[in-house]
Structures are given as structure tokens and as C-alpha cells.
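User: C-alpha cells for this one?
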Amino acid sequence: MSSNEVKEGGRSGAPAALVAGHDAAVEIDRIPASQRFALDQLLQLYVHDFSDFLRPEQLADVGEDGRFAPFPRVEAYLAAPDRSAWFIRVNGKIAGFALIDAHAHSGQAVDYNVGEFFVLRRYRRGGVGARALAALLAAHRGVWEIAIGARNAPAQSFWPRAVATAGYGEGMQTLAGDGVEWTGPILRFRVA
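Assistant:
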């Protein structure tokens, strides 16, 4: 099989890429507003996992309903023309999500930025995230940034490797955040 699947608003019938070492197909689907609940559920898991990389004063408590506060800007990712939300699927099952926007952490012009990216623990370390990124990049040509949290060591290892695996490592710049807008490295590269 030759490429990752990409489809707006539903799963595609195009060939899917195999996950390295596995026979699982990885695809990305544009998330329709009708699946907002599923995205909200995944965002709860994301916030929980991401708390491992926050300073103590940044940690959030859950409410009396046992949930973290609603994730900000979700509606914009589902409706605004300069943002998009994507499910990551493995063999047709939801395995994570990606939120794409045009926010430039470096202060330089950018076409796309990975706002948030999440793969369920079950699907990590098997190539799913890298395959999903490759599909996202193939669907969005232009200048990209990926800002990586200063305390997120796994992401600092994953992102440069995933960009290189997708074929865009040559010419990739690693910029330092300014400590105000962003603390941590910022990857910047072009998808032609």
C-alpha cells in the first residue's frame, strides 16, 4: 500500500499506509461538527496526559462532574476557515486527533501550525503518530511550525523524527522560543 488516507468529513476509500511493523492502516479524517462530542472526550484524555509536562501551578483540577474544563477554541477548529480538526484512525477506529491552525509561535509568517496532537497510548510507539503527520503534511502544502513544550521530552524526540520520516527534515529549522510567546523549540519547515 502506498499512502496514508485523507478524507474531508469521513473515511476515504483510498489506499492506506501500513504502520511500521504492523498491518494496521492509518488514516486522517476531517472532524465534522456532528462529532464534536467524540473530540471533546479525546480532549479530556489529552489534558490528563499533557499534565505530565506542566509546572505545578499550571495543573488543572477536575470539576464536580469529574471532567476537566472544556478545551478552549474547539468550535473554531471545527468551523473557522483557518483551522481544522482531524481524527487519527487506525484500522478505521479513532486513535487520536490533530488540531491545525495558522498561529506562528516564532512571529514569522506561517501557513500551518500543529495546535494540538494526540495519539491514544495504545497506539503510541508503533508509527501511528508519524504516519498521521505525514498524511496531514501531504494535505497541507506550505510553511509549517510545530512548537514543542520545553518540559515535553517525548515530543522533543518525536517531532523532528516524524518530520524527517515524512520527508521534510532537510531544510527544517529549529528555532528557540522567545520565553514569552513560547518556551521550547519551534520546528519550522516547508511542505512543497
